[in-house]
Structures are given as C-alpha cells and as structure tokens.
Amino acid sequence: MAVTSNSSNMVVGLDIGTSKVVAIVGQATDDGGIEIAGIGSHPSRGMKKGVVINIESTVQSIQRAVEEAELMAGCDIHSVYVGVAGSHISSMNSDGVVAIKEREVMPSDIDRVIDSARARAISEGQRVLHVLPQEYAIDAQGGIREPLGMSGVRLEARVHLVTAALNAVQNIEKCVRRCGLEVDAIILEQLASSMAVLTEDERELGVCMVDIGGGTTDIAVFTEGAIRHTAVIPIAGDQVTNDIAMALRTPTQYAEEIKVKYACALTQLASSDEMIKVPSVGDRPARDLSRQALAEVVEPRYEELFTLIRDELRRSGYEDLVAAGVVLTGGTARMEGVVELAEEIFHMPVRIASPHNVRGLADVVRNPIYSTGVGLLHYALQEVRHGHDRDGRMVAAPPKRNDVSQRGGGEWIPALAKLKGWLKGNF
C-alpha cells in the first residue's frame, strides 16, 4: 500500500507486559512532543515476569492490541519498537579508550571508543541491548557530554551497558514476527518509561525512576543527565493481587478488581467504616469486609517492594545523589497511599508520574499504565530524528522503513466518537 506523507513519520510502540499488551501509534510534533493517533490494549496471558511462557497467547494479545490501534489511527502497522523487561536483564558501567586519529574528534572516533567500551566480556547467552554513553574525557579533561569536533590525542568514554538473555529476546521477536510485524528495535522498558515521565531537571539533579508493572518492577537511576544504574525486581502488581486472593479467599479476577477499586497502600488512610463485598470461591455467599482490613493485606507487600527498591538504590551507590527523589510510574503505582508509604521508606520526595508532552489522545495516555508505550515512541522518534542505531550511536541515515501506512487515502477516522465508546468498554 502506498504510504502517504501523513503517515511516513509515524512510529509504533509495543509494550508487551505481564498484565497487558499496549500498542500506541504516534508521530512527532514541531515542538518535540508526540501526537498520539491510536491506542490498542489487550490483556496479556502469555507472559510472566517479562518472559514469554506461552507463544500462542502472546501472539493473540499482540494481534488484538495492534488491530485496535490500527482501527483507531486509521492505518496499517508494519513494524514496531518493542519494550523488554525481566530478571534476565543485567547492566554494568564500562570504559573504553582510543587514540584520536586526526587530532580532532570525528564521528568515527566516537564509534570506535563506544565499540571499545562495549567489548567487555559478556556472558554466553546474553545479547547487548544498549550502549548508553554517560560521559567522555579527552586527554585529562573529563565530564564532556559531546566530544565531536574537540581537539586532543586520547578519547575515553564511560558507558552504561545493558544486556538481555538471548533466548528471552528471541522469543519476544518471534511472537511479534508471527503477527506479521517487523521489529525495529528492542528497548529496555525503564529506559523508555523514563523518556516519557522524567523532566530534564530531574535527570540533571539526580532521580530514581521506578516503573511498577504487573510482573516486574523496573528501576533506572539518572544523575547529571545520564543513566547510571538499571535493575529489575521480580515483585510487582501480580503479587499484590495474589496476596488479596489468598488472604480474602477470593478468585484472582475478583482480587484484581478489588485491588483496582478499593485497595489502599497505607492502613491509616483507609476507613474501617467503609465496607466492600468480597465474592467467595465456589457457590458460597459473598462476604463484607472493611477497606481497612484490605489495606492491612496490601500494605506489607508494598512495604516489602519499596524496601527492596531502597536496598537496590543503596547498593548502586547513588542513594545520596538522587536529589530529585523517586518518581513512580506504571499501573501498580496508581493506588491511594502509595506516595505516603514510599516517602516513609525512602525518606525523600516521591511523585507519581504519567507521560507528558503528548497530544492527540492525551487525556487517555496521561495515565501511568501507558508510560512505557509512550516512552517507546519517544525513543523511536529520537532515533529517527538523530539517525541513531539501537545502541545509541550515530548511523548514516534514519530507519528506512515506515512503520505505518495510511488507510483510505489518508483520511483519518473521526476518532472522538469512537474513543468515547472505546473508553467505556475498557475502563
């Protein structure tokens, strides 16, 4: 199908999560933001803690989400930028050194020094996802962010190296290709989320971004504008739902509903007078339970999670350098009492963040559950704008392929009326 000028600069982000698959179609705006053209979301059944456990189920979820996004945006999707998370992800900081050939730093010198930094011994079965430059040094002068064109003899680079299990990445790619889609790039989910929710000031001042999803909690620490540490904790929203199901003896789907509607992460904020109906297992009658009793089940799990995040931050060595505090995002961060409990444990400012700098379906996507999806678009558009390859290095030209082609000669489906119906059906 011919690609119209409207759609040639569109990109698609695919967030394959443990609880849901989200496909988001967007294009760049003149002010560096994103215009969202379509969203598709479908429950995810074939993933566990960021890893594919059932290819058929995952393929079906991806297909449904992509079809929904196509319908809303009025386009055909050909390729996607995919997010990846899970305990198989590992990261380290690495250094590289090269001689500057022409006594002036050229793009080829930057490529060589990044290659030198990525040549660290990577364990078998791992694949490099990102080589993210933190800073450069020329001769004795350090702290350089953009060395291009500078004079010197010796160029050093400090980078953040992110690797993932080869088989986990291949399984995700296989699921996407089974849907007839190409994979433009595989992107670390917390890197994507941070692009959607963090401000430039927070990155400069130092911040710990925590994306709490269904299966995993993804952490990214930034200082002086660069990513310094990433980690994944295999505890997230599913554990909270499971705790509710076990403690209240109610089926998992009802436990999830109760969590979303009534749960509170801090017992003292929940009322003991407010009662909720709890469905029982089998044919037994439903029972009444106070909201405070529900909070007593939920709070210990959030406390455990925030304590693990704090310990990870301490281990990273950056705890005293995150002056902007902690930024929480992801579906599991949306609960009453989460900020208050987190501030008690971290002893620093905490905020819950949604994607910013978005237009189009902004009212829909300004929600922590879409942080990764919108972040994937930010990553993709930055790549297209700057002509970067997936490791963040310069390449000759931006990606050749167009992600979407317009349907019906470029006529947009009147999105507003459809959107209202879609919102009612999904929320």
From TrEMBL:
Q: Which InterPro entries match?
A: ATPase_NBD, Cell_div_FtsA, FtsA/MreB, SHS2_FtsA
What is the protein name given in its UniProt record?
Answer: Cell division protein FtsA
State the annotated membrane topology for this chain: Peripheral membrane protein
The source organism is: Candidatus Halomonas stercoripullorum
On subunit structure and binding partners, the annotation says: Self-interacts. Interacts with FtsZ.
Q: Which Gene3D superfamilies match?
A: 3.30.1490.110, 3.30.420.40
Which superkingdom heads the taxonomic lineage of this protein's source? Bacteria
Family listed: Belongs to the FtsA/MreB family.
Q: Which SUPFAM superfamilies match?
A: Actin-like ATPase domain
- The gene name reads ftsA
Ranges for domain SHS2: 11-197
Q: Name one GO biological process term.
A: FtsZ-dependent cytokinesis
